[in-house]
Amino acid sequence: MSLLWNTLLVNPMLNVLVVLYRVAGDLGVAIIVLTILIRFILVPVMNPSLKSMKKQRDLQPELDELKKKYKHDKQKMAEMQMALFKKHGINPASGCLSQIAMLIVLIALFNVIRLFTINGDYSLINSKIYSDQFKISAGETVNTNFLYMDLSKPDPYFILAVLSGILQFIASKMTLPYVEKAEKAAKATEPKSDDIAFQMQQQSLYMMPVMNVIIGITLPAGVVLYIVVTTLFTIVQNYFSSGWGGLTPLLKKLKFAK
């Protein structure tokens, strides 16, 4: 299993990072470029989740009607919600698959950065590099400095950690359904604390940003840099896929959206 993990993920990612580092001469820039490349590769994996998210947004008026109709029968309301999702080919948990894929890549990248920032002995990393011309020569030191940080250590000022939490909140908020025609209907319904989809969305909305901050405080800055860039990519991808989503009301108030 370890051999398969290294062969399919860690070693190829490490080699791409080494090449980018040799070309750019900056580990931070190399990580940013590698992150963007990874996200483009994962676009086919993310698209089904984005399409499902858009369908849920479009179904929001019907979901609000079901909530209003079955407000005194929570079990029936949940059954009808699931039936509606099934009718339109929506899996409320489809986002979990994309999150799992992102987590796998994150773990692999952590291993890569850990290998790449070992001080002194680069024999292990050289054994994984495919081409001799990119291997680290004796006496050579990998420069892990980027801006004010040492990418091999946690961000001393927690700036990346906080930024990753804020960006994750924005990305999560964008996934919440918002349909202008249903705005009044949604306000007319009772609190949604008993809504299955709503509960899942709320958990994601607040848990993921908190997790990002905790991760950002403890992990090497190089890994957190990956998280920040990949979350920015997610925000852009969400916008072009389904617009601002749950951020729309706030942006309207700030005059940034119509």
TrEMBL record:
Single GO biological process annotation from the record: protein transport
Membrane topology category: Multi-pass membrane protein
Pfam families reported in the protein's UniProt record: 60KD_IMP
InterPro entries for this protein: YidC/ALB3/OXA1/COX18, YidC/Oxa/ALB_C, YidC_ALB_C
MF annotations from Gene Ontology: membrane insertase activity
GO CC, any one term: plasma membrane
Membrane insertase YidC/Oxa/ALB C-terminal domain residues: 28-240
Keyword Phosphoprotein listed: no
Keyword Membrane: yes
Transmembrane segment boundaries: 20-45, 90-113, 157-176, 210-236
Highest taxon of the lineage: Bacteria
Keywords: Cell membrane, Chaperone, Membrane, Protein transport, Transmembrane, Transmembrane helix, Transport
Subcellular location: Cell membrane; Membrane
Family: Belongs to the OXA1/ALB3/YidC family.
NCBIfam families registered for this protein in UniProt: yidC_oxa1_cterm
Protein's name according to its UniProt entry: Protein translocase component YidC
Lineage: Bacteria, Katanobacteria
